[in-house]
Amino acid sequence: MLFQNGNLKVRKLEKKDNYLIARWLSNPSVLEFYEGRDNPFDLDKVNKVFYDSEDDEFKCIVEFDGNEIGYIQFYQLDDETKKKYGYFDGNIYGTDQFIGEVEYWNRGIGTLLITSMVKFLIEHKKADRVVMDPQIRNARAIKCYQKCGFKKVKILPKNELHEGVYQDCWLIEYQL
After folding, report:
1. Could you state, in chain order, the average pLDDT of each consecutive group of 10 residues for the chain (176 residues)?
2. What residue ranges carry the coiled-coil annotation (predicted)?
3. In a domain? residue 101
């Protein structure tokens, strides 16, 4: 287990979790803001993207009340991404996440997850700031992140290809 905060646990992704990721990333409600409804995942795609890739992301499963409900990953920003975002130094981490079990939406769990992850990154990874780049149209997520202390920094125009259209995103940050 990476960390626990009350009923919330975050643990490292295991091979047996591939069926969960495939189920979540084939749900149109989840895909509306994460990956796109035109980009569903089957087991083969999950295995290739989440298990066979050689990236620097630390991939995790989110549990609440003993149930696996979502996914979160964190990573240290590389120099290219820092430059793109306008940062020149510092220990900066990024996160991406979703709650895959839609019955757990709008219950404050996302807020608990983000505040817990920020605390973990500051205390254990010595992060100076944590950043995310949600699509501007994802108002629910942005509201959650702002509740957790993130501030809007700037718009990243046409930052993410989503359902065939390049979407503008907010660069948001949590800074000590």
Report:
1. 97 97 97 94 95 86 98 96 93 97 96 98 97 96 97 97 96 95
2. none
3. yes
CATH number, domain of 95, equals: 3.40.630.30
The one-letter amino acid code at 62 reads V
Amino acid at 147: K
